[in-house]
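Appendix B, example 12.
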Amino acid sequence: MNEVNQYILDTIKTHVWGGFDTRDEIQRVISDLLEEDADERMLREFVSIEFKKKFEAEKHWPQVTDVDRLESVFQALNRNGIHCLHNAGYTISDGHDDSIEELMAYPKGHSLAITSIMVKI
């Protein structure tokens, strides 16, 4: 397997198992990453294969996962006036872009503090 295919396969796995993206969104990611020597058909088919693996694995997950608990923390912070973004991009730059978009949509006349936290697991 060439490096391009391996990189895109790894990216597909990250997006599928991250749980935030739909199949269509992942297909768009593939379109953005395709290069001349990539096996487009194999890569696009891999999305369904990986979603099936995730679906099977989810059958054995606890009722409430760590991500569910983390999401509930984000919701609680937001309810208490601390504006938070869960899954703000895959890179620090993406996170900054997403945060700026949220900031621009924030109602005028309110105080707002911004901090960036990136956790790599």
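The chain has a mean pLDDT of 86. Residues 88 and 95 are 5 Å apart (CA to CA).
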